[in-house]
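Q: Predict the assembly, please.
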Amino acid sequence: MTQTYCRRAVHSLTKSTIHLSNPFRPQQGRLFNTKRSHQSNWNNKSCIPFFIDPFTTNSIIMSPTVLHLRSETKPLEHRSALTPTTAKKLIEAGYVVNVERSPERIFDDAEFEAIGATLVPEGSWVDAPKEHIIVGLKELLEEKFPLKHVHVQFAHCYKQQGGWENVLARFPRGGGTLLDLEFLVDERGRRVAAFGFHAGFAGAALALEAWAWQLNNTTPFPGVSSYPNEDALVADVKAALNKGAEKAGRMPRVIVIGALGRCGSGAVAALRKAGVPEENILKWDMEETKPGGPFKEITDSDIFINCIYLSSKVPHFVNLESMNNNPDRKLSVVCDVSADTTNPLNPVPIYTVATTFDSPTVKVDGLKSEPACSVISIDHLPSLLPREASEAFSHDLLPSLLTLNDWQNSPVWARAKKLFDEKVATLPPSALEG
Ligand SMILES: NC(=O)c1ccc[n+]([C@@H]2O[C@H](COP(=O)([O-])OP(=O)(O)OC[C@H]3O[C@@H](n4cnc5c(N)ncnc54)[C@H](O)[C@@H]3O)[C@@H](O)[C@H]2O)c1
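A: Predicted assembly structure:
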């Protein structure tokens, strides 16, 4: 079989370089047993590879890979795995990007249309051709029908979470594949894209607002909703912080643990942007917690922001006893960005529930002295800043997205597929029966 390039086809079809879908897959009903996919530039003009069938001498132009961006169905999820910026880059690289219209997404449908994406109806991924790759962010609705596509998303079913068998089994039952974004790692095992920075940023912003609110009010810190952009959030936090500082007669002292990580650096950035003086920000990581907690430095601070990645048992950072044992306790707000709320190893065992944007704080029970203390344990903090969080995440994911045309041969996706196969192998046979 001969591969060649057709200049005329290029001009009539596209100005972009076309990435082939996996050439081992049947294309237009044929199995092309060629070596690898190609991305070629010919005389500085983009070209579409096509193949001459030696038996019929027909030339067949390979179809570009189609990415189908789902409309998220999780309530109040405004973030998006693709943004107009990254969708444009994918289209320029030869992908077709279909974008479901979405009432919740922070980016208007028109922003995607303007960069050349094709708008398609909400929920239309279900009936999309099998070879389209479905890109989303969060869980699918809890339904039962088998999944036939390749799905790129966070599925939250690899750690034996409640109902994991039903979520995962839908893929093998339909011949589909899950490429889970939470486990997409580079050759050194580092995640290629994560929302941590904006989780920490949002957590620190809410913690400052809650601190100021509690100084000036007796009612719990009220519900919040997502911001159109970071500037709007920072302006609100600055105003709140000034009110709090006026009442307290000083700026708060804040301790961030896990300060060198993604969430931690986001938290520190928010504190700085809000105007907390540098000397009031304690930035702790592994080195500082080596002696083992509980730590008096936490109860001596007004605000504690926990941003660690919990991978093994560590002594409590703070607990009820350490709070009650410090007669000069100042701690009145904890933001547990790590949110290992129900994990028995949670090093911040002073609360038991996950809080929400509607009701962001939960009171710490059992304190013997003032001030009262509340905890923020929201597990979807980046949704407070959906635009910036999506842009940062999608930007980091883009190099991997650009290899989706040949994902089986792309190390990052091949690793995700291997993990998928391993997890599927752990499914009880009953789950596969549907
Ligand atoms: N609440 C949310 O909405 C939300 C969003 C994203 C991530 N998270 C969670 O936040 C956590 C952190 O994520 P990340 O992306 O920032 O991880 P990361 O790996 O980038 O950073 C973790 C940091 O914690 C430090 N650390 C680990 N154990 C420590 C210890 N015992 N003492 C001091 N420092 C310690 C590490 O050295 C590292 O600097 C994860 O559990 C993640 O699931 C929560």
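DSSP finds 13 helices and 19 strands in the chain. The CA atoms of residues 202 and 369 lie 29 Å apart.
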